[in-house]
From TrEMBL:
Gene of this entry: pth
Source species taxonomy: Bacteria, Pseudomonadati, Pseudomonadota, Gammaproteobacteria, Chromatiales
Site (Stabilizes the basic form of H active site to accept a proton): D96
UniProt-annotated location(s): Cytoplasm
Protein name (database record): Peptidyl-tRNA hydrolase
One biological process term in Gene Ontology: protein quality control for misfolded or incompletely synthesized proteins
Binding site for tRNA: Y18, F69, N71, N117
């Protein structure tokens, strides 16, 4: 039996210049959940980010977009955990994933950072026991191009694929809340 989902944290960078970049895939998913819930996030300084509490499948869920910049996201996740007395197992962290093709979404529990600095800082602050929703953004092919790649906007085809992955991620969250983790994983991984 897996823990009940209580909070979803989308990783990204604050500011207009980062809004459409691949690195903000986590923010895109939170923004979609806010639209679907007819809600808006408010700046909460003690949480170091934009926060909302919404109802998804008749369950209260905290949504957070850290405004700390990607590489120090962990302190916002820790602040959310401490303030609302959450366990890492109750948190879903949504982030861009270079190792998945653009448009692929995958759920995962635990694991290492895989070179992702936002994950690395979150693991440093709360450990590895949180769930992840990985939004595939593809890889530029050359390791030296990664930073420029994740901090740039995708082309039209990749942008549509990423929108589809965000939508699939939102449906997986619905499935987790309604039918459980295993069902959500199986359905997402067989359909996306």
């Amino acid at each position: 039996m897996t823990a009940e989902l209580k909070a979803i944290v989308g990783l990204g960078n604050p500011g207009e210049k980062y809004t459409k970049t691949r690195h903000n895939a986590g923010f895109w998913l939170i923004e979609q959940l806010l639209r679907e819930s007819h809600a808006s996030a408010k700046s909460v300084s003690r949480l170091h980010g934009l926060h909302a509490q919404v109802s998804i499948r008749n369950q209260a869920v905290h949504l957070l977009m850290p405004m700390t910049f990607m590489n120090v996201s962990g302190r916002a996740v820790r602040a959310l955990m401490d303030f609302y007395k959450l366990q890492p197992e109750q948190i879903l962290l949504v982030h861009d994933e270079l190792d998945l093709p653009a448009g692929t979404a995958r759920l995962k529990r635990g694991g290492g950072p895989g070179g992702h600095n936002g994950l690395k800082d979150t693991i440093r602050c709360i450990g590895r026991e949180f769930a992840r929703l990985r939004i595939g953004v593809g890889h530029p092919g050359d390791r030296e191009q990664v930073l420029g790649y994740v901090l740039s906007a995708p082309g039209k085809a990749d942008a549509q694929a990423l929108d589809n992955a965000v939508y699939a991620g939102c449906r997986a969250i619905d499935d987790w809340l309604e039918r459980g983790w295993d069902y959500a994983v199986n359905r997402l991984h067989s359909s996306n």
